[in-house]
């Protein structure tokens, strides 16, 4: 069964496997680009790249309402527990570590970015997420700068890479195209842009450069739109 992937604005994505619903970096209620609010979201698993509010803001609320299991780095996972999510519903990890789950395999990768939690406490290190689901390998870079070890992440083959293009806080469009060259995914989707004026970007121009300089197929969505993998 194909995976259905929906962009919910900023860096928030949902993945429906036909059995499980995954939610990545839930930021909905305070996200001006989100097509829906947190109380409309259903999830079995919530995956978090790092502690910044625009990635973790709605994670605990959704987890408590739906009973979803949250997977994140150790420091973020401990903070999630303090928000009232049951300990048995939180899995703390660290870069390089992987977890086999009913939906598939999740591995945390390195990312080059800061990480603090909404209350100002230490959020551990920022991470990327590498998923293996029903034979598909999907990489969510999270918030990151360009780094050469992306070549290692792509070595096993990637069906989809999701990369930030907003600049200022993460890599911008030019470095993102270089990241596509390192990762060599079959498809690539942009995120972390156009939420606020400081990170406005021309996604169509970015997609044209991806086509011009790489073999990847760019997938540019509007918030709320989906595609199948």
Structure notes:
This protein is α/β, with parallel strands linked by helices and 229 residues long. It has a single domain (4-228), classed as Ribonuclease Z/Hydroxyacylglutathione hydrolase-like (Metallo-beta-lactamase, Chain A, 4-Layer Sandwich). The protein has 6 helices and 14 strands. The strands form 2 sheets. Strands 6-5-4-3-2-1-14 form a 7-stranded mixed β-sheet, with helices on one face. Strands 7-8-9-10-11-12-13 form a 7-stranded mixed β-sheet. Strand 7 and strand 8 form a beta hairpin. Helix 5 (173-183) packs parallel to helix 6 (203-213). The chain is globular, with a radius of gyration of 16 Å. The relative contact order is 0.15. The model has no long low-confidence stretch (mean pLDDT 98).
